[in-house]
Design a protein that fits this description.
- The chain contains 4 helices and no strands.
- It is mainly α.
Length: 82
């Protein structure tokens, strides 16, 4: 592995751990953890719901669609080819 990549990975992991330690001190109850202390706005909640919806489509629906048409239509998987 090249040294710059290794350095970038170590710095990234250190930053993720540092952020986790900082915010773990702010979390007092399980409600704070799971619901963000009920401080999330409607836009963040809507984006989270949409991300969950798209995730379920990509993990369960799209592979079934590809199996059904035997991979003939691949544009929905990789985007339009035009």
């Amino acid at each position: 592995m090249k040294l710059p990549i290794l350095i970038a990975m170590v710095l990234y992991m250190a930053m993720v751990i540092w952020i986790g330690v900082i915010y773990s001190k702010k979390t007092k109850t399980s409600e704070d953890y799971f619901l963000g202390g009920r401080g999330l706005g409607p836009w963040v909640t809507a984006m989270s719901a949409e991300a969950s919806d798209m995730s379920s489509w990509l993990l369960m629906g799209l592979p079934g669609l590809k199996l059904e048409d035997r991979g003939k239509e691949i544009t929905s998987l990789y985007g339009s080819s035009r």
